[in-house]
Design goal:
The protein is mainly beta. It contains 2 helices and 9 strands; from the N terminus they run ααβββββββββ. It has a single domain, classed as Lipocalin. Helix content is 15%, strand content 53%. It comes from Pedobacter steynii.
Length: 129
């Protein structure tokens, strides 16, 4: 009996923790990220692939399926990175509990001395139902 108590027996606390973890889990779900100038609808297919559709303020869309680097930092915080076909590099920290996204973009820019430019974006994250 003592061993079962120490090992956890699937009691209420364990079930509540599992429910919280799955409520904030990213993989296998879809989300919407709203930035100032565009929104992105993203399907987190697995821990190595996302499919995204970006829609700007004029309604113009762009989409892609990307191989990603993915790291779960805790039960609600995720780091993702990918490089798109046009060379745009995207790095994101997604907080599914607070509904926040911090993104860093790096892209080709002929006018820059290094040939690339970069910018930070802050967005709002919500799971799609």
């Amino acid at each position: 009996m003592f061993f079962q108590a120490c090992a956890g027996n699937g009691g209420t606390a364990d079930k509540q923790a599992a429910a919280i973890d799955s409520a904030y889990a990213l993989i296998g779900k879809s989300g919407k990220i709203t930035y100032t100038d565009f929104t992105a609808e993203v399907a987190y297919l697995n821990d190595s692939t996302v499919h995204w559709t970006a829609i700007d303020k004029t309604g113009k869309t762009n989409q892609g399926t990307e191989k990603i680097s993915y790291k779960q930092l805790n039960d609600h915080l995720y780091f993702l990175n990918w490089i798109e076909q046009d060379g745009l590099t995207v790095s994101q920290v997604i907080n599914t509990k607070e509904g926040e996204v911090d993104a860093f973009l790096s892209y080709k820019d002929e006018k820059s001395t290094a040939g690339r430019a970069a910018q930070f974006l802050k967005g709002k994250f919500e799971f799609k139902k």
